[in-house]
Amino acid sequence: MSEPRQPLPDTVVQGRTGGTNLVRVGVQNRALVLDLVRRRGPFARAELMRATGLSAQTVSNIAAGLVAAGLVREAPGGGRRLEVVAGSRSAIGVHLDPAHLVVVRTDLTGAVLAVEHVDLDATDDPARTLDTMAAAVHRVRGDGSRARSRTGVPAPAGIGLAVPGSIDPDGVRMGTPAQLRAWWSLPVTDELAARTGLPVRLEKDGVASALGEVWSAAGADDLVSVFLGHGISAATVAAGEVVRGATGNAGEFGGMPVEAHGRWTEVWEACQPLQQVRRGIDAGLLRTGIPLDRASDVRHAFERLCATPSAAPLVAEAGAALGSALAHVVELLDVPRVVIGGSAALAGGDVFIAAVRERLAVRLPNGPFPTVAATAFGEASVARGAACAVLQADLAVPAPVGRGAGVATGRRPGGPVHVRSIAHPW
C-alpha cells in the first residue's frame, strides 16, 4: 500500500495536537511529539500518529531523533512505548515578590529538584536583592559547574525570572510595578545574567504560574490561573497554550470592579494583603503600629490575620470578591478549571478558596461552573513556571500555528509597546 498523501503546503492542522509533514516545520513537529510524550506519555508510536496526524515514517524519524538526543527513551515493559527522560534537561526559576524570593531548579518534567525561600524586602535596594537572588541561584545549582552534576541532571539551560506587574516587551526590563518603583527601567535580566553566568528570560508572575500548571499535566488544556500575592493577575490557558498577549502582558485584571467590604471597589483592593491588614487593624484583629511601608512586615501581618479565627469573615469577603471577578472571566472564556496560587491566596487557605467557589456558584447558577482549587505546587508555583518557560524556549515548544510571530518567546517582535500597571499601589 502506498504512503498516505501528504498535506499541501497551506494545509496545516491547527493546535497542539496537529502536525504536518512539511520539512520546513520539522522543528515544530519534533517539539509537538516531545510535548505530547512529556505531558501525556508514555506513548506508543501508533498513538502518536493518531494524536498528531503525522505519518508513520515522520513519527518514526522524530522518535529516533529524540531518543538519540537523550530526551525520550523506550519505557520498560515492552510495547515500544516512549517516555520522557526527566533528567535530560534542567532549568532554574526565580520568583521575585516584594516580600519574598523563591528560587527552584527543575528537571524536564517540571519536578522541583531544589528550592530556596528567602524573606526579604525588595522595594528599596535592587542591587542587594539581585545579589541575594544570585546567591540562591548558585545554591540550587548544586555543583556550580557547567558539567553534569552528580545527580545526573545537566547544568541548567538558563534562568526564568518571574516578576510582578507589567514587563517591557524587549524582555529585559520590568515595566512600572507600583510596589517596586526602584526597579523601573532596570535591565534586570542583564543584571542577573552578569551575576550568575546564565541567560535569563523574563516573565510576568501570572503567566509563569499558568505555564507551571500545564507543563506536565495531561488534562490541563483550558483553564484560568490566578496569582494573588502582593498583587493580583490572571493568565489564560487555551488548548494547552498560555496566552501571553502581543507584548507578554496579558492577565492584568486587577481593575475589575466588584462589590466587596460594603462598597464597590476594584478586585485588587478587595484582596490585596496591605488593604486587608489595614482592615484588620481597623477591626481590632491586628495591633496598631505595624510598619505598613515594609513589604515583609505586611506579609507577616497578613499571615497572622488569616490564621486568626475571628478574621475568617474578612478573608471570606476577599475570596467572594475574587469569585465575582472570575465569574466574568469564566463566562467570557468558557473555561472548565480555575487554579489559584500566590502567597496571599495560600495564606487564606480553605476559607478563601471556599468563598471563591460559593460566589461563583451564585453568579453562575446555570453554568458554566468550573472546578476551583488551590495550586498543587504551593508557593513555589510561580518560580517553577518560570523554569518551565526556559525549558519551553530551549526545546522550541511551538505555539499553535497561525498565532503570530514569536513562537519561542510568546511575544510579537516589533509590536506596540504598552508598558502599564493597573497595579496594586502600596
Structure description:
The protein has about 425 residues and is α/β, with parallel strands linked by helices. Helix content is about 35%, strand content about 20%. It has helices spanning about 25-40, 45-50, 55-70, 125-140, 190-195, 205-215, 265-270, 275-280, 295-305, 310-335, 345-365, 380-395, and strands spanning about 45, 70-75, 80-85, 90-95, 100-105, 110-120, 160-165, 200-205, 225-230, 230-240, 240, 255-260, 265, 335-340, 370-375. The strands form 4 sheets. The protein has a 5-stranded mixed sheet with strand order 6-5-4-7-8. Helix 2 (about 45-50) crosses helix 3 and helix 10 (about 310-335) crosses helix 11. The model is unreliable at about 1-15, about 145-150 and about 400-425 (pLDDT under 50).
Strand content: 15-25%
Helix and strand content put the structural class at: alpha/beta
Strand order of the largest sheet: 6-5-4-7-8
What profile does the largest beta sheet have? 5 strands, mixed
Low-confidence blocks of residues: 1-17, 143-150, 398-426
Tally of alpha and pi helices = 12
Q: Using only CA atoms, what is the Rg? A: 22 Å
Average pLDDT across residues?
84
Helix content: 25-40%
Span between termini = 70 Å
| Mass-distribution shape | globular
